[in-house]
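Long-time lurker, first post. I've been practising inverse folding by hand and with some scripts of my own, and I keep getting stuck on stretches where the structure tokens seem ambiguous. Below is the full token string for one chain I'm working on. Before anyone asks, I'm not after the true native sequence, just a reasonable design that respects the backbone. If someone could post their per-position residues I'd love to compare against what I wrote down in my notebook.
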């Protein structure tokens, strides 16, 4: 597939590619030799990491006491 760079350095990604990575608005851009590599990046609002961690802990049946004990154990190693 071909993509053309505009005078403002913009490239339109082909629809068939974009359909395979839904909900992605941002990409990490890097060079690998002479290739341009785009990696999808998901941006989360501040605090959502903590919410996700708490939800995962709840799903695993972990309590605050369990987490405190794990932290104490890790710090004393």
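-- Answer (accepted) --
I ran through it position by position. Result:
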């Amino acid at each position: 597939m071909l993509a053309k760079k505009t005078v403002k350095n913009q490239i339109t990604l082909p629809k068939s590619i974009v359909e395979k990575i839904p909900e992605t608005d941002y990409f990490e851009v890097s060079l690998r030799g002479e290739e341009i590599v785009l990696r999808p990046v998901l941006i989360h609002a501040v605090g959502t990491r903590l919410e996700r961690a708490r939800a995962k802990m709840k799903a695993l049946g972990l309590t605050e006491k369990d987490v405190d004990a794990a932290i104490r154990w890790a710090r004393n190693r």
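A couple of notes from the structure itself: The mean pLDDT is 91. Residues 16 and 67 are 44 Å apart (CA to CA). Happy to go over any region you disagree with.
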